[in-house]
User: Fold this.
Amino acid sequence: MVIRVKVKNSSYNVIIEKGVINCLNEHISSNGKTLVLTDSGVPQIYAKSVADNFACPFIYVLPQGEQSKNVNNYQAILSFMLENGFTRKDRLIAVGGGVVGDLGGFVASTYMRGIDFYNVPTTFLAQVDSSIGGKVAIDFGGVKNSVGAFYQPKGVFIDTVTLETLPDRILYSGLVESIKMAATSDAKLFEYIENCASVRENLEHIIYNSLLIKKDVVEKDEKEHDLRRVLNFGHTIGHAVESYFNGKLYHGECVGIGMLCMSSDTVKERIYKLLTKFGLPTEVQAEPRALLDIAMHDKKSIGDLVVGVYVDKIGDFTLTNLDVNEISRIVERFL
Assistant:
């Protein structure tokens, strides 16, 4: 399966194919130097399989976790590339989840004013969400993704074989992003996931249709001026929950909870059943005031307002500006 993403000054293919990481040299020049960036949570056979496609590969392994997406690692990778003579003609390939893709993309966007960046996402979350769209970043000052850029990859390669080693909890946490996109934009995909007896046996269908939604949004609004905010459904409260629990809950688990806060009763019931079906949390015990403070410092805020996404009917959405009192009511009603 191939999806062509076309934005203002760039276009690239997203290739969804079992075993594609073993034949990347059919799609990317093997000449020059290649930095394969990965982390300790990714089976190293994947990074090695990617590296084996190229004439002069270097593998750089980060510690696993969101905490690796920081200024120190950003600087260390740049230093490594300089020390090993990387030029503007060389490339960086991220092999891993969203942390590796975000950090790797940001390094590529700034090294020598920009080198070729390729993404090989190995988690379901990264495959359906952060793998395309060009948002790259690091965390700074305690704020997630507060320093970054829009920098489109030259290509994205999705190999569903890499999902076979994922535990169910991580897989289903990633599935939340597909549920999110289906809830706002594709009633048929939402119903498909509701009726899906085995996600693992239908991965390519779900990934492909999820990416069609994101492709459409990104092409219409590359830099998140308006429509692209729909991708933040569940994130207003979800990001606050994620920050509050500081890594104890996965991103998708937090977004799932956030979606429940921003849905009509009918939609909430259907999302609740899906989250329960896949063993995902539907509630948390947290201090409302603390969640409110975090939510109001959301980087998507406009002055004293936060742009929220509300789903009244599966397959449709509205954007709404929320002030501190409205978010406070949402948080207190949920908790």
